[in-house]
Amino acid sequence: MAYVMGFWRLASDMGMAGEFVVTGLFSHWQVWLALAVFLHLGGSILNKYGRGGDFEVPRVLAFAIFPVRSRKDDPVARSARPRI
Known about the structure:
- The structure is a single chain.
- By secondary structure, the chain is mainly alpha-helical.
- It has three helices and no strands.
- It has helices at residues 2-13, 29-50, 75-80.
- Helix 1 (2-13) runs antiparallel to helix 2 (29-50).
C-alpha cells in the first residue's frame, strides 16, 4: 500500500492522477517510497527467518550495530548446511 501511495502522489505531482488526500509529512512521495522499501526489506528478512533461515542483515544495512561476519569464518554456519 505504501508503494501505491507513493506512486499516486508522484502521479498527482505530474498531473496524471487526481488530487492527493494526505497532508503534512506524508504528503511527499519520497517519504512513501522510502517507507515502502523499508517495509518490503523488513518483510523479506522476517519471512526468510520465519521459514527457518538465518536472520541475516543485508550488507547494505550492516552498520556498527550489526557487524557482518563472513560465513567461512563461522564454524556453526559451515557445519549446519550441507555442501552440494
